[in-house]
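I have been asked to look over a protein record a colleague put together. Alongside the sequence sits a line of tokens, each denoting a local backbone shape. I have pasted the whole thing underneath without changing anything:
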Amino acid sequence: MKKTAVLLFMSILSLFCDDEFTVKRGEYTFTTEFENNTTVTVFYAVPMKFNRIMSSASNIVFCAPFVGERKFFVREFNNYFVKNMGCTVFTFEYKYKKEEPENRTKWYYYKESGWHDLMFKVQDKLIADYGLDRKKLIIVGESGGASMAQQMGIYYPDKVDAVAVVGGANYDKPTVKTDVAWLMINTWGDDTKKANDKFMEDSTALNMQVLRPVTPPIYANMGAQDFHHGASKMAEEYLFEFVKGIIDLRKNNNKLPSAEKWPVKYSFEGKILNFPSEGFRKKWEELPHDFIKKTFYPSAKDDVMEYPVKKNGNIILFLHDKKFTSTNLMDNIYYLQELGYNVVTIDISMDDYVICKERIIKALDYSRNKAKQENKKLYAVGFGESGLTLLNETAKIKENGVKKLFVFNPVRNYYSEKTVNFPADCECKVYYTQDYWDDKPVTGKAWCNEEVLPLYDDFGRKWFKLLDAMFIEKVEDERIEVKKEMKEKKVDEKKEEIVIGDKDRILSTSQVDEIDRNLTTIERFLMKKETEIAKKMFEKLTAKYSDGNIAYVNAGTYKWIIKKMEDIK
């Protein structure tokens, strides 16, 4: 075990908010023998009301950092537990020269490294310094932080009540049943899913419950390295609701009952799951379980698969090339659903092109009949051989056909000598990715509009932007109107733009954090219609900082608050 000593140094930074709720922020500095971390800085936040520590502050949440995390109380994830739940929160900065996640004696995930012991010392110090009741830790984390959280939950069930994580992988096998509450979330397509599934399997063998939801990716990070790894908003909201339920369950005697004694029993896929609260159950039901099951485990291979939306939107027939994985298919179908479309597809992963062609025709006929019966427009997207078949079959349809057809990388030489006339009401567009165009010699005439895209067959970060261009700006009339409204709003915003000078940008990190926290809190009170508290906080904020200062930190929220304040007057 590595020796640690607390330096006689502790800085306290107190954020002003309103007279009731404040957040006291501080740092502990420890000297250690950890490689690259002889000095460790721990950052914490404690909730207060009327200048007193809130009773809920005894719920201490350790936010285990992911590798390379630095802005601990800037992103909303860590702040949520103190601002919305009234918990004490702490985390730390981990420094490294090279990644060595398999080195158990050095890397912070593992018990052997000594970092776990340091985290429990931080808990002890917070309890002593702020007079908190002793309760077991609640540990949350993403990626590397999730791995650390799992390790601590496995080895210290006497000190840890709950572990709620997204996307960890470096897990140890459980050997005994404990009462630790486990929530292990993954984004579909994440490589860490296997490790989480294995942990659930090992835990189930010990009669220990592990809740294992799967969530959609972060579409804002489309094509990025962490596209299928980081926590989406849906995953974070789900995690928050779990922690909230755990806190409520231990209100009576500061102890968390075992999962078997939790209040909500829920039947799911032939099993009875134990949920900590009704709020958690509702969140569970918001997850796309049926969507995931239908995509990965279709009930009958010959069935056309339909993914309807709650509102009765137009229809998209989406046919993926057999080279596309089920993860690609899920990403695209779910994204189009979120845009408001009913999506139809069919499995064409078999090698026999004749069979694939028959199935594509089947899905096309199904989609046409559905569009006719529901009086909806039908659009279609195809790749490779499926795109070629769509081109051929769509050209034959004279009525009740496809209104928009987008095809990617069809085998052009198969049709380049043909002249085909599409129906007048069908707009067809063929796209080639740059690598396909460069590798395949093209001859003859094209039979509809062609365009070479400056991207490659994995489409990368630009793919979903391309879908937006096809299915938001160019297709839906109502969405075009929304775009116009958004553009007009941007013009108005430019007219009301607050000038930000060089002096306004000279703010310390703590000042930026202070402004951002207060803006978020004011926004929350306004949304709750607690206008008097919001006005008081806003007056304090604007008295301390200039318009340029505040706009520099968060111009959008600031303008929204100003408008709301004017409406109140």
In short: The first strand starts at residue 4 and ends at 15.
